[in-house]
TrEMBL record:
This is GNAT family N-acetyltransferase. CDD domains: NAT_SF. InterPro entries: Acyl_CoA_acyltransferase, Bact_Acetyltransf, GNAT_dom. Pfam families: Acetyltransf_1. Keywords: Acyltransferase, Transferase. Residues 71-217 form the N-acetyltransferase domain.
Length: 219
């Protein structure tokens, strides 16, 4: 039986370092398994990357992760079943972070399905987003690898990750942030439009995809 726990904690977003390559790897592979149709790559393609590959990926960019202190989300008993338990959360915006005000205790860890909590420490990862810059477009930041864990979708985590990417682009003197949405991914399209992106007619990298852009406000 789930027991509601009243908590008031920050959800923070930061870039992972190269030394956190194992966490980066596990989150990326979890995303590819959870939402295979949302990415141009695949689990099979990336599962055998080397330590060096993960340390340096994305090349020239950053890999942001949103964290919730793990004490606020006690893991459920899973009994070997690969699932996320039902939960109730409420996010609001408070400065540069999101505050989680109510959480059910029956939420399984994002990574516990793979038994990979040993290096996570005291924080629960809720979502990821990366940045990448193409040599042909040195003033454009490409937002890549966006994924939010099922337990946190629709709660403002994606907006926090977008803000981190836009901030990175601003710090690097870029004019725009660009991304692609796979065909049929309506929830992602809705989220990006709410975050200030606009649809373009640019040719997508993936067949059927849609390219969106957002200007970088320098003020």
């Amino acid at each position: 039986m789930d027991v509601d726990v009243d908590v008031d904690v920050d959800v923070d977003v930061r870039a992972l370092s190269g030394d956190e390559w194992q966490l980066k790897r596990d989150l990326r592979l979890t995303a590819l398994k959870d939402s295979p149709d949302a990415f141009a790559s695949s689990y099979a393609r990336e599962a055998h990357r080397s330590e060096t590959d993960w340390r340096t990926w994305p090349p020239g960019g950053a890999f942001f992760t949103a964290f919730l202190p793990v004490a606020a989300v006690p893991p459920a008993t899973v009994d070997g079943v690969d699932r996320f338990s039902s939960h109730a959360v409420s996010f609001g915006v408070d400065g540069g972070s999101s505050r989680l005000e109510g959480v059910s205790s029956g939420v399984e860890s994002v990574l516990s399905r793979a038994g990979r909590l040993d290096h996570v420490g005291s924080a629960e990862p809720l979502g990821i987003a990366g940045t990448w810059v193409a040599a042909a477009e040195p003033r454009t930041t490409h937002l890549i690898s966006m994924w939010v864990a099922p337990i946190a979708r629709g709660r403002g985590v994606a907006a926090l990750l977008v803000d981190a990417v836009v901030g990175w682009a601003r710090d690097h003197g870029h004019d725009t942030v660009e991304l692609e949405v796979a065909r049929g991914n309506t929830p992602a399209m809705t989220a990006y439009l709410r975050c200030g992106f606009i649809v373009t007619q640019r040719e997508p990298f993936t067949t059927g995809g849609t390219v969106l852009v957002r200007p970088v406000n320098r003020h």
